[in-house]
Amino acid sequence: MKGHSISRIISLSLISGALLILIQPPLSLFFLAYFALVPLFFLLKKGNLFISFMAGMITGIVSYTGLLYWVVVAMNRYGGIDITLSFAILLLLVFYLSLYTACFTVCVTYLYERFSIPLFLSAPCVWVLLEYLRGFALTGFPWSLLAYSQHNNLPFIQVASVAGPYFISYMIVAFNTIIFAVIEMHFYKKASRVYFPAYLYIIVITICFIASLIFGITNLHKKDEGTLNATIIQGNIAQDIKWDEASKIKTVRTYYMKTLETGRNTDLVIWPETAMPFVFEDEPYVKNYVTALPALLNTRLLFGTLSKGSGKRFYNATYVYERDGSLAGIYRKVHLVPFGEYTPLIEYFPFLQTLTAAGGDFISGEEGHAPVTTGIGPIGILICYEGIFPYITNETVKKGARVLINITNDAWFGKTSAPFQHLAFYVFRAVETDRFILRAANTGISAIIDPKGRIQAHTDIFKDAVLKGKFTMKDTTTFYVRYGDYFILLIGIMLVLVILVRLSRIYH
User: Fold this and answer.
1) Which domains does the chain show, CATH number per domain?
2) Could you list the active site residues?
3) Distances in Å between the alpha carbon of 433 and those of 194, 217, 371?
4) Can you tell me the distance from the alpha carbon of 170 to that of 165, in angstroms, rounded to the nearest whole number?
5) Residue 77 near residue 358, CB atoms below 8 Å
6) Which of 9, 8, 16 is nearest to 60 (CA)?
7) How confident is the chain (508 residues) per 10-residue block, as mean pLDDT?
C-alpha cells in the first residue's frame, strides 16, 4: 500500500462506501453486498496502518452519511434543534460509526502484517465482532448491519433462526474475501502457498451457504396460516402538529372513527406509538371515550401513549385493553433513544441537553421486556427502535411472548430512507424468533410480517390507512432465541486460535 496514490485510496474507498449504501433499503440491491468490500480490500493487503485507517474512515464516512442523512431531518425539522447543530450531530454520529470501519481495516491489516493471517480468515471475524460491539457500546446503535441488506433474500436469511443476523454478516464478508482472493490469485499471480487454504476456505463457505439455502427453502415451504384477525390503524398524524394542544381532539377522533369503521369483531386493534399524545390517565374524558371502544366493538385495543413517571418525567407506554374494556396491562419502554427521549450523562455534562430533541424527557420502564398477558395469550411489545436490538426480541420471546407488536412513530424521519430501513430490521426479528410481527407506524410503514419474514401486507408512507390481516400466537423456541449470540463467541474463539497458531509458528 505504500505505492497507493491518494486518488486511488479515495476512489476505491468511495466505491465501497457507495456500494454499502446501495445494498440497504430503500434500494436494497442485496446482490451488491457480496463484493461491496472488495474495492476496500485492495487498499489493505500490503499497506501501512495509517493508510488502512484512512481508507476505512473514508468508506465509513461515505456509507454512514448516505445511510443516516435523515438524522438532520429528525433533529432539525421535528426535534427543534438548529440546522447547524443538527448537521454537527450527524457529523459526530457518522465520525463515531466510521471509527468501526477504520478499526476493521486497521485490525485486518495488522493481523496480516504481524501474524500473516490471510484476509479471508481475519476479515469476517473482525467485521462481525465490531458489528456486535456497535450494538452495545454507548447504549448501542446496530442500525443497518450488513446482514440487513439481505432482508429480501428470504431463502438465505432463514438461517437467522439458528445463528442470528451476525452469521449472515459473516457470510457476506466471507464472500467478499473469496472474490478478492480469486482476483489476487488469478489476476495478480500471488504465491502458490496461498492457494490451498484459500480453496479450502472457499469450499467450507460454499457448503455453509448451500446448507443455509437448503434450510431456508425448506423452511419457506412451511406455511404459517393466521387464525386471528388484526386491524392496524395508521393515523398519519404529522409530527409538527402531533403534540399541538389544539390538535389533540382531532387526533383522538381520527383513531376513534377509523376503529369504529373497521375494528368490529377483531381479535386485536393496534394504534401506533403515542397515538394518544398526552398522559392518558390525566385525561378522564378521553380515557372513557377510548376505553369504551373494546366493549362496543367486541375487540381488544392496543395503543401508545404517555404515562407518568417520577417528577415531571414520563414513560413512553403502551396500554392494552381487553374486549370487556378492562385493562390487560401496560408496557413501558425500556430502551430509550439517546438524545431523542433522554439526555445521557446530563448530570455530568449539562450542555448535552442542547443536543436533545424537544420533548426528550422520558425514563425507562422498570418492568423489563415482559409481555402483556391477554385473552389471546402473551403479547410482546417493542416500542420504536427497541426492535433493532436482537437481544431485546429474544428476551421478550423467552419471557413468553407469542406474537410481537411493534408500534412506532416514524414521522420523525420524514420522507427519507429511514422508514424503509427500520421496517427491514423487523423482517429479521420475525425470522429469528419464529413470531408474527404486527407493526403499526403513525405515518408508515405499517406491516404484517409472518414468522418466515414474508411481508404479507404493508402500507405506504405518509398516507392514512387501515391494514387488516391474520396472525397466529406461536409458542415455539428457535435455536437462536434459546442460545442467543453464541456465534459471536465461536468466531471470537476462532480468531484467537488462529492468532495463537500463527504465534507458535513465529516463535518456533
Assistant:
1) 6-221+491-507 (no CATH), 228-335+371-473 (3.60.110.10)
2) 273, 333, 384
3) 40, 18, 14
4) 9
5) no
6) 16
7) 75 98 97 97 84 96 98 85 91 97 97 91 97 94 97 98 98 96 74 65 94 97 91 92 84 95 96 94 92 96 91 89 96 87 59 54 89 97 95 97 97 94 98 98 96 97 96 97 97 95 80
